[in-house]
Amino acid sequence: PMISVYLLLDFLLSLNLIFVAFLITFVSIESSAMGEMLNNSAIIKKFNDFLEAGHYRKTPERFAILDRVLTFPRAFTIDDLALKLEADAYHVSRATVYNSVELLLKAGVLRRFHLDGMSMQYVRVNSTQCTHLICTVCGKVKNVKDPNLAAFMNARKYNAFTTSHYSLCVYGLCNACARKLKKSGRKKSQL
Questions:
Q1: Angle at 138 between CA 135 and CA 144, to 5 degrees
Q2: CB neighbour list of residue 64: distance below 8 Å, 6 or more residues apart
Q3: Does the structure show a pLDDT above 60 at 32?
Q4: Distance of alpha carbon 170 from alpha carbon 186, whole angstroms
Q5: pLDDT tens per residue across span 112-155
Q6: pLDDT tens per residue, range 42-61
């Protein structure tokens, strides 16, 4: 497991320096865990670069919120994030959480989507080409890479528009919900 440590951040920020330290406990690191760690470092750097370029303040609260966002393995809501912050005894106002999430959206770290009857959901962005498979029953989100779709989208040219990234949400049933539906004998239209 990886524990992010932000020591002396206020002091270093006043010197216009950034200090992000990672304390890594090596019990058993699998290659996927190592890939996750590198991805998190890239995301932190991307957010830091975004804040610098936009002349936004680099506050400990924003980085603490980013740190908690990186711990979610799947989609989450603002309420989920606020509860995680409270559980970690990190007290920030709800407005700070909302404002920080908006900055993470602008930085391209998160994507937002909405399921009918549910709160706004957020998911981490791992590439500039995202396809999200979203279960309309349980809300589970699975990110997939689709090389055919990527090739198609990269080949598309639009008049007076330069594409920087895309995000596609495909709504349906995950395998677990489909099995439950089949077992119960209900039809998809009854959901």
A1: 35
A2: 6, 85, 90, 92
A3: no
A4: 22
A5: 877 666 778 888 876 666 788 888 888 787 878 888 888 888 88
A6: 889 999 999 999 999 999 99
Entry pTM: 0.62
Longest dimension (CA), the chain: 64
Strand 141-144's sheet: what is its strand order?
141-144, 129-135, 166-172
Between 3-7, 60-64, 173-177, the lowest mean confidence (pLDDT) is in 3-7
In three-state form (DSSP H/G/I as H, E/B as E, the rest C), the secondary structure along the chain is CEEEECCCHHHHHHCCCCCCEEEECCCCCCHHHHHHHHHHHHHHHHHHHHHHHCCCCCCHHHHHHHHHHCCCCCCECHHHHHHHHHHCCCCCCHHHHHHHHHHHHHCCCEEEEECCCCCEEEEECCCCEEEEEEECCCCCEEEECCHHHHHHHHHCCECCECCCCEEEEEEECCHHHHHHHHHHCCCHHHC
> Residue 134 pairs with which residues in a beta bridge?
141, 171
Q: Which of 151, 143, 140, 138 is nearest to 167 (CA)?
A: 143
Cα–Cα distance for residue pair 72/34, rounded to 1 Å = 16
Token pair recorded at residue 81: 């994030």
